[in-house]
Amino acid sequence: LTPLNTLLMNGKSYALLLESNGKLNLVNHEGQSVKGFPIRLKGVYKQAPILEENGGMVYIRTLSEQGELSKITTNGNVVEEKQLFRPNNEDKFSLSLNDKQNDWVILRSDGKNCTILDKNTEELFSLTNLPFGNKQVQYYRLANTVRCFAFSNGWSTYNLYDDKGNPLSDKPLVSTSRPNITYSESYNKILINTTSATSLDTWSIKLK
User: Fold this and answer.
1) 123-162 per-position pLDDT tens digit
2) What sign for the dihedral angle of Cα 57, 69, 109, 20?
3) Largest CA distance in the chain
4) Taking the model in full, what pTM does it have?
């Protein structure tokens, strides 16, 4: 599964490979598995794992479509397995790494309703009765207290919300690639760059 993550250990580069059937492997440039790998995880997987640093250690985080959240060491030990609450069989789960790659959240969606959980699996907010589709979320941690989320159906339309589920704009953003979002502390504004086939546009939203 992509994107392919690489990990540097003892001056050597290793690739982290996850197959849809839950087979997780950590291999060197010659394709040889690190001791302790491969391992088999529960569930079906649709996205690549992410890497998480904690207390000077690097852990591998995986999340199955069915909500099986795992934490694995770089020697293949599964130190945490947790089945997330799944209200119905239509709900699917995914991880979203923030733009700075130092935090992540979990999306639970049945195609019409969405819930965002933080990395401690605590619920941040829910959105209901959205247009049906395969929901994706882009997570932006702009400052210690400023977080926003751009929801899409996998197309080029994005709807922005704050971390309490309040809409940040009265109309969706249209962009052919992931919007670039920054925060101006002096003006207390979110600055947004969107792209189209012919232009690069900049928008601003004043925070309350």
Assistant:
1) 999 999 998 999 999 999 998 889 999 999 877 899 999 9
2) positive
3) 54
4) 0.93
